[in-house]
Specification:
121 residues, 4 helices, alpha+beta, 2 strands
Amino acid sequence: MTTNYTPADSLAYLKENGLIDAAIEALYTLADDMSASEQADLAISVLETLQKILAYEVRVHQLDTATHYSNDVPLTVIELEPYEEVDTDGVRHTGVRPFTICMHPSGVVPHPAIDNGGEVA
């Protein structure tokens, strides 16, 4: 793992990792089911505002078309995962499908704060 990356790399990672998107999607699902949907709506609004701010800063620093960090680590890597599905006729289908992994600028998949308890290497 390297710590040789720029603040712009950190910004690009925050935009690319999808955590805000996942939180917003989960909150929309909860808002439909919750009696306390006002809290969910507020949380959605806060996350969507943060998402807009990050997207703006990414564009300001011209990172919206970046494919690699400044240290040549790719922003994302496409891997294959096996799947098994049964269609409506009961026929089982197996295979592999691509999925995208967001890389941290350090070259690891989990964020270093998650992977090592938040200690800076």
